[in-house]
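Archive transcription. Copying these from loose printouts into the bound notebook so they stop getting lost. Printout 1 of 2:
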Amino acid sequence: MSNIQDMALVMCIISDMKDVILSRLADQIRRMRIERGLSQEALAAAAGVNRKTIIELEKGAAGTALGSAVAVLESMGAELNVVPAFKPTTAEMQALLGLVEPPRGRARPGKPGRGA
């Protein structure tokens, strides 16, 4: 298959971008926590959530409440911004489809077709 055919197949399989968006959010939360030298427990306490919520956010779990994500970000001096969507990178698409391992320190995206 050509690269164009591969990308067409990928775009057919992934009808929405929630897995990529959740993966990006998970990466950012984990990166910020580590940069600040916080444990998951310390971040959870600062945000007023339990450690399981931090674990789920860092895994990119779809079932975590948006309010929890906002509280976690605010506790680290950040905020959630909504920006126009853009296409995922080739590396994100390959990782999402399980074609390659995600880079170290990044959340492993969910499998295509999983419901929220």
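Printout 2 of 2:
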Amino acid sequence: MTAEEDAIVAEIEAFSTAWNKADAKLAASFFAEEGVRVGAMGDRQQGRAEIEAAFDQLLHGPFAGAPSVRGMEAYGCWRPIWRYGRAAWKSARKTTR
């Protein structure tokens, strides 16, 4: 993998660790201060405090004890998307300069 891909995997693994510890504050720290999270059911939170509260509800409610899966087999699905996204981003950067 490239250094960029290694960095992404490291972030995913760090988030998974926060999730597995049921640490809502740490999980929310992966979002920008004014970041937006849209849940699978369409619920929307804006800002780290709202995101932390949503994670706290999930991690101590319906997803209590549900582990985050880690390992290279879990990341295989994003590699083609990452490569496409990176190429599209580089292309967009060239046209906006």
